[in-house]
Amino acid sequence: MSYENLIVEIENRIAVVTLNRPQALNALNKGLLDDLSAFFDEAKTNDDIRVVILTGAGEKSFVAGADIKEFASFNAEEGQQLAGKGQERVFNKVENFSKPVIAAVNGFALGGGLELAMAAHFRIASTNAKLGLPEVTLGLIPGYGGTQRLPKLIGKGRAMQAIMTADMFTAEKAEQIGLVNEVVEQVDLLNRAKEIAGKITRNSSIAIAQAINAINASDKENGFAIEIESFGNLFEEEDFKEGTTAFVEKRKPNFK
Ligand code: CO8
Protein backbone atom coordinates (compact mmCIF):
# COMPACT_ATOMS: atom_id res chain seq x y z
CA MET A 1 0.00 0.00 0.00
CA SER A 2 1.96 3.00 -1.18
CA TYR A 3 0.59 6.46 -1.86
CA GLU A 4 2.07 9.81 -2.79
CA ASN A 5 0.45 11.73 0.07
CA LEU A 6 -0.06 9.06 2.73
CA ILE A 7 2.26 6.94 4.84
CA VAL A 8 0.61 3.63 5.73
CA GLU A 9 2.13 1.42 8.41
CA ILE A 10 0.41 -1.85 9.33
CA GLU A 11 1.32 -3.64 12.53
CA ASN A 12 -0.72 -6.01 14.70
CA ARG A 13 -3.68 -5.55 12.32
CA ILE A 14 -3.72 -1.81 12.98
CA ALA A 15 -3.11 0.56 10.05
CA VAL A 16 -1.63 3.92 11.02
CA VAL A 17 -2.36 6.27 8.13
CA THR A 18 -0.38 9.51 8.24
CA LEU A 19 -1.63 12.31 6.00
CA ASN A 20 1.64 13.58 4.63
CA ARG A 21 1.75 17.12 3.22
CA PRO A 22 3.51 18.82 6.14
CA GLN A 23 4.63 21.76 3.98
CA ALA A 24 0.92 22.73 3.72
CA LEU A 25 0.00 21.54 7.24
CA ASN A 26 -1.49 18.42 5.57
CA ALA A 27 -4.20 20.44 3.77
CA LEU A 28 -6.53 18.26 1.73
CA ASN A 29 -5.81 18.72 -1.97
CA LYS A 30 -7.17 16.53 -4.74
CA GLY A 31 -4.18 14.17 -4.60
CA LEU A 32 -4.55 13.57 -0.88
CA LEU A 33 -8.31 13.01 -1.19
CA ASP A 34 -7.71 10.56 -4.06
CA ASP A 35 -5.17 8.69 -1.93
CA LEU A 36 -7.53 8.51 1.05
CA SER A 37 -10.34 7.22 -1.15
CA ALA A 38 -8.04 4.56 -2.65
CA PHE A 39 -6.71 3.56 0.78
CA PHE A 40 -10.19 2.94 2.20
CA ASP A 41 -11.15 0.93 -0.90
CA GLU A 42 -8.09 -1.27 -0.47
CA ALA A 43 -8.35 -1.51 3.32
CA LYS A 44 -11.94 -2.74 3.08
CA THR A 45 -10.89 -6.17 1.83
CA ASN A 46 -7.42 -6.30 3.41
CA ASP A 47 -7.57 -8.88 6.22
CA ASP A 48 -4.34 -7.52 7.72
CA ILE A 49 -6.27 -4.40 8.72
CA ARG A 50 -8.80 -4.49 11.56
CA VAL A 51 -8.60 -0.86 12.77
CA VAL A 52 -7.49 2.35 11.04
CA ILE A 53 -5.84 5.27 12.83
CA LEU A 54 -5.72 8.58 10.95
CA THR A 55 -3.15 11.19 11.95
CA GLY A 56 -1.17 14.07 10.44
CA ALA A 57 2.53 14.36 9.62
CA GLY A 58 4.57 16.68 11.82
CA GLU A 59 3.92 18.03 15.28
CA LYS A 60 1.85 21.02 14.30
CA SER A 61 -1.14 19.84 12.34
CA PHE A 62 -3.60 17.01 11.83
CA VAL A 63 -5.13 18.69 8.77
CA ALA A 64 -5.42 22.50 8.36
CA GLY A 65 -8.43 22.20 6.06
CA ALA A 66 -9.14 21.84 2.39
CA ASP A 67 -6.32 23.24 0.25
CA ILE A 68 -7.33 26.89 -0.05
CA LYS A 69 -4.82 27.55 -2.83
CA GLU A 70 -6.37 24.78 -4.91
CA PHE A 71 -10.01 25.91 -4.70
CA ALA A 72 -9.44 29.70 -4.52
CA SER A 73 -10.32 30.20 -8.20
CA PHE A 74 -13.30 27.80 -8.34
CA ASN A 75 -16.78 28.85 -9.49
CA ALA A 76 -20.06 27.59 -7.94
CA GLU A 77 -20.24 24.46 -10.07
CA GLU A 78 -16.64 23.47 -9.39
CA GLY A 79 -17.08 24.15 -5.66
CA GLN A 80 -20.21 21.99 -5.50
CA GLN A 81 -18.56 19.23 -7.46
CA LEU A 82 -15.48 19.22 -5.22
CA ALA A 83 -17.59 19.16 -2.05
CA GLY A 84 -19.99 16.50 -3.37
CA LYS A 85 -17.27 14.23 -4.70
CA GLY A 86 -15.20 14.64 -1.55
CA GLN A 87 -18.12 13.81 0.74
CA GLU A 88 -19.05 10.75 -1.25
CA ARG A 89 -15.55 9.43 -1.98
CA VAL A 90 -13.90 10.14 1.37
CA PHE A 91 -15.97 11.52 4.25
CA ASN A 92 -19.04 9.30 3.97
CA LYS A 93 -16.79 6.35 3.12
CA VAL A 94 -14.88 6.91 6.38
CA GLU A 95 -18.07 7.26 8.44
CA ASN A 96 -19.58 4.10 6.99
CA PHE A 97 -16.36 2.09 6.94
CA SER A 98 -17.02 -1.35 8.40
CA LYS A 99 -13.78 -1.32 10.43
CA PRO A 100 -13.21 1.22 13.22
CA VAL A 101 -11.55 4.49 12.19
CA ILE A 102 -9.93 6.52 14.99
CA ALA A 103 -8.72 10.08 14.39
CA ALA A 104 -5.57 10.87 16.39
CA VAL A 105 -5.69 14.66 16.22
CA ASN A 106 -2.10 15.84 16.67
CA GLY A 107 -2.48 19.60 16.13
CA PHE A 108 -4.67 21.85 13.98
CA ALA A 109 -7.90 20.18 12.80
CA LEU A 110 -9.54 22.99 10.88
CA GLY A 111 -12.24 23.11 8.23
CA GLY A 112 -11.99 19.92 6.15
CA GLY A 113 -9.53 18.62 8.76
CA LEU A 114 -12.07 18.73 11.56
CA GLU A 115 -14.66 17.39 9.11
CA LEU A 116 -12.41 14.40 8.44
CA ALA A 117 -11.86 13.85 12.17
CA MET A 118 -15.65 14.05 12.72
CA ALA A 119 -16.27 11.49 9.97
CA ALA A 120 -14.01 9.08 11.87
CA HIS A 121 -15.79 6.88 14.42
CA PHE A 122 -14.19 8.68 17.35
CA ARG A 123 -11.39 11.09 18.13
CA ILE A 124 -8.58 11.43 20.61
CA ALA A 125 -6.33 14.50 20.66
CA SER A 126 -2.98 15.77 21.86
CA THR A 127 -2.84 18.67 24.32
CA ASN A 128 -1.72 21.09 21.56
CA ALA A 129 -4.68 20.32 19.27
CA LYS A 130 -6.89 23.17 18.06
CA LEU A 131 -10.17 22.29 16.39
CA GLY A 132 -12.52 24.53 14.44
CA LEU A 133 -14.52 25.31 11.33
CA PRO A 134 -13.17 28.69 10.12
CA GLU A 135 -14.82 28.62 6.66
CA VAL A 136 -16.86 31.82 7.19
CA THR A 137 -13.57 33.74 7.44
CA LEU A 138 -13.06 32.71 3.80
CA GLY A 139 -16.60 33.63 2.79
CA LEU A 140 -17.62 29.95 2.75
CA ILE A 141 -19.41 27.45 4.95
CA PRO A 142 -18.19 23.92 5.79
CA GLY A 143 -18.56 21.74 2.68
CA TYR A 144 -17.40 18.31 3.81
CA GLY A 145 -20.23 17.56 6.23
CA GLY A 146 -19.32 19.97 9.06
CA THR A 147 -22.74 21.60 9.34
CA GLN A 148 -24.26 18.13 9.79
CA ARG A 149 -21.74 16.31 11.96
CA LEU A 150 -20.70 19.10 14.37
CA PRO A 151 -24.23 19.71 15.80
CA LYS A 152 -24.67 15.98 16.32
CA LEU A 153 -21.45 15.78 18.32
CA ILE A 154 -21.61 18.97 20.39
CA GLY A 155 -25.21 20.22 20.08
CA LYS A 156 -26.81 22.75 17.76
CA GLY A 157 -26.19 25.89 19.82
CA ARG A 158 -22.48 25.22 20.29
CA ALA A 159 -22.12 24.30 16.60
CA MET A 160 -23.89 27.50 15.55
CA GLN A 161 -21.54 29.58 17.70
CA ALA A 162 -18.41 27.73 16.56
CA ILE A 163 -19.25 28.07 12.87
CA MET A 164 -20.42 31.71 13.14
CA THR A 165 -17.42 32.91 15.17
CA ALA A 166 -14.86 30.58 13.52
CA ASP A 167 -13.32 30.21 17.00
CA MET A 168 -11.08 27.21 17.59
CA PHE A 169 -11.65 24.82 20.49
CA THR A 170 -8.65 23.92 22.61
CA ALA A 171 -8.13 20.20 23.15
CA GLU A 172 -9.29 20.57 26.75
CA LYS A 173 -12.53 22.30 25.70
CA ALA A 174 -13.07 19.78 22.89
CA GLU A 175 -12.92 16.97 25.44
CA GLN A 176 -15.27 18.79 27.78
CA ILE A 177 -17.97 19.12 25.08
CA GLY A 178 -17.54 15.63 23.64
CA LEU A 179 -15.83 16.57 20.38
CA VAL A 180 -12.88 14.36 21.33
CA ASN A 181 -12.99 11.41 23.71
CA GLU A 182 -9.72 12.03 25.49
CA VAL A 183 -6.62 14.21 25.47
CA VAL A 184 -3.05 13.05 26.01
CA GLU A 185 0.42 14.55 25.61
CA GLN A 186 1.55 14.62 21.98
CA VAL A 187 4.37 12.09 22.59
CA ASP A 188 1.79 9.61 23.88
CA LEU A 189 -0.91 10.18 21.26
CA LEU A 190 -0.13 7.39 18.79
CA ASN A 191 0.61 4.87 21.52
CA ARG A 192 -2.70 5.63 23.19
CA ALA A 193 -4.54 5.33 19.85
CA LYS A 194 -2.80 1.98 19.23
CA GLU A 195 -3.68 0.83 22.74
CA ILE A 196 -7.39 1.53 22.12
CA ALA A 197 -7.15 -0.04 18.65
CA GLY A 198 -5.47 -3.12 20.14
CA LYS A 199 -8.32 -3.59 22.56
CA ILE A 200 -10.79 -3.38 19.67
CA THR A 201 -8.89 -5.98 17.60
CA ARG A 202 -9.45 -8.55 20.35
CA ASN A 203 -13.23 -8.27 19.96
CA SER A 204 -15.42 -9.78 17.25
CA SER A 205 -14.85 -7.83 14.02
CA ILE A 206 -18.18 -9.03 12.62
CA ALA A 207 -20.03 -7.71 15.65
CA ILE A 208 -18.10 -4.44 15.49
CA ALA A 209 -19.02 -3.91 11.83
CA GLN A 210 -22.68 -4.43 12.73
CA ALA A 211 -22.34 -2.06 15.69
CA ILE A 212 -20.93 0.69 13.44
CA ASN A 213 -23.82 0.18 11.04
CA ALA A 214 -26.42 0.29 13.81
CA ILE A 215 -24.89 3.30 15.60
CA ASN A 216 -24.69 5.20 12.30
CA ALA A 217 -28.39 4.44 11.83
CA SER A 218 -29.23 6.23 15.09
CA ASP A 219 -30.07 9.38 13.09
CA LYS A 220 -32.43 7.49 10.84
CA GLU A 221 -36.10 6.77 11.40
CA ASN A 222 -35.48 3.02 11.15
CA GLY A 223 -32.46 3.00 13.51
CA PHE A 224 -34.13 0.66 16.02
CA ALA A 225 -35.15 -1.74 13.25
CA ILE A 226 -31.57 -1.80 11.93
CA GLU A 227 -30.27 -2.58 15.42
CA ILE A 228 -32.74 -5.45 15.84
CA GLU A 229 -31.90 -6.88 12.41
CA SER A 230 -28.12 -6.67 12.99
CA PHE A 231 -28.51 -8.13 16.47
CA GLY A 232 -30.46 -11.09 15.12
CA ASN A 233 -28.05 -11.76 12.25
CA LEU A 234 -25.10 -12.07 14.61
CA PHE A 235 -26.63 -15.21 16.19
CA GLU A 236 -25.72 -17.07 12.99
CA GLU A 237 -22.03 -16.12 13.19
CA GLU A 238 -19.12 -18.25 14.43
CA ASP A 239 -18.01 -15.33 16.61
CA PHE A 240 -21.25 -15.56 18.59
CA LYS A 241 -20.67 -19.26 19.26
CA GLU A 242 -17.02 -18.62 20.19
CA GLY A 243 -17.82 -15.63 22.43
CA THR A 244 -20.58 -17.36 24.39
CA THR A 245 -18.69 -20.68 24.59
CA ALA A 246 -15.60 -18.88 25.90
CA PHE A 247 -17.73 -17.19 28.58
CA VAL A 248 -19.18 -20.50 29.72
CA GLU A 249 -15.73 -22.15 29.66
CA LYS A 250 -14.25 -19.23 31.63
CA ARG A 251 -11.60 -18.38 29.00
CA LYS A 252 -10.87 -15.51 26.64
CA PRO A 253 -12.56 -15.77 23.23
CA ASN A 254 -10.42 -16.44 20.21
CA PHE A 255 -12.15 -14.64 17.34
CA LYS A 256 -11.05 -15.55 13.82
N1 CO8 B 1 -4.65 25.28 2.42
C1 CO8 B 1 -3.49 25.48 1.78
N2 CO8 B 1 -2.34 25.78 2.41
C2 CO8 B 1 -2.36 25.86 3.75
C3 CO8 B 1 -3.54 25.65 4.50
C4 CO8 B 1 -4.73 25.34 3.77
N3 CO8 B 1 -5.88 25.09 4.38
N4 CO8 B 1 -3.26 25.83 5.80
C5 CO8 B 1 -1.95 26.13 5.88
N5 CO8 B 1 -1.40 26.14 4.64
C6 CO8 B 1 -0.01 26.43 4.28
C7 CO8 B 1 0.31 27.90 4.40
O1 CO8 B 1 -0.11 28.60 3.24
C8 CO8 B 1 1.81 27.88 4.57
O2 CO8 B 1 2.39 27.64 3.29
P1 CO8 B 1 3.63 28.59 2.79
O3 CO8 B 1 4.72 28.29 3.77
O4 CO8 B 1 3.87 28.11 1.42
O5 CO8 B 1 3.13 29.99 2.91
C9 CO8 B 1 2.04 26.61 5.39
O6 CO8 B 1 0.87 25.81 5.21
C10 CO8 B 1 2.21 26.87 6.87
O7 CO8 B 1 1.09 27.64 7.32
P2 CO8 B 1 1.20 29.04 8.10
O8 CO8 B 1 2.48 29.72 7.75
O9 CO8 B 1 -0.06 29.77 7.88
O10 CO8 B 1 1.31 28.50 9.59
P3 CO8 B 1 0.88 29.29 10.91
O11 CO8 B 1 1.42 28.50 12.05
O12 CO8 B 1 1.25 30.72 10.82
O13 CO8 B 1 -0.73 29.20 10.94
C11 CO8 B 1 -2.85 28.12 10.69
C12 CO8 B 1 -1.36 27.96 11.06
C13 CO8 B 1 -3.55 28.95 11.75
C14 CO8 B 1 -3.45 26.71 10.68
C15 CO8 B 1 -2.97 28.79 9.31
O14 CO8 B 1 -2.15 28.09 8.39
C16 CO8 B 1 -4.37 28.81 8.75
O15 CO8 B 1 -5.19 29.59 9.16
N6 CO8 B 1 -4.64 27.92 7.77
C17 CO8 B 1 -5.92 27.87 7.10
C18 CO8 B 1 -6.98 27.28 7.98
C19 CO8 B 1 -8.33 27.28 7.29
O16 CO8 B 1 -8.90 28.32 7.02
N7 CO8 B 1 -8.84 26.08 7.02
C20 CO8 B 1 -10.15 25.93 6.39
C21 CO8 B 1 -9.97 25.81 4.93
S1 CO8 B 1 -11.52 25.83 4.10
C22 CO8 B 1 -12.10 24.25 4.22
O17 CO8 B 1 -11.49 23.41 4.80
C23 CO8 B 1 -13.41 24.00 3.54
C24 CO8 B 1 -13.76 22.52 3.55
C25 CO8 B 1 -14.84 22.24 2.59
C26 CO8 B 1 -14.32 22.41 1.20
C27 CO8 B 1 -15.30 21.86 0.23
C28 CO8 B 1 -14.71 21.91 -1.18
C29 CO8 B 1 -14.67 23.27 -1.79
TrEMBL record:
Single annotated GO MF: lyase activity
- Superkingdom, natural source: Bacteria
What stretches pass through the bilayer? none
- InterPro entries attached to this UniProt entry: ClpP/crotonase-like_dom_sf, Enoyl-CoA_hyd/isom_CS, Enoyl-CoA_hydra/iso, Enoyl-CoA_hydra_C
Q: Name one GO biological process term.
A: fatty acid beta-oxidation
Kindly state which keywords UniProt assigns to this record, in alphabetical order: Lyase
Extract the Gene3D superfamilies matched here: 2-enoyl-CoA Hydratase, Chain A, domain 1, Lyase 2-enoyl-coa Hydratase, Chain A, domain 2
Instruction: State the PANTHER family in the record.
Output: ENOYL-COA HYDRATASE, MITOCHONDRIAL, ENOYL-COA HYDRATASE-RELATED
Which family is annotated? Belongs to the enoyl-CoA hydratase/isomerase family.
Q: What is this protein called?
A: Enoyl-CoA hydratase/isomerase family protein
Instruction: Say which species the protein is native to.
Output: Faecalibacter rhinopitheci
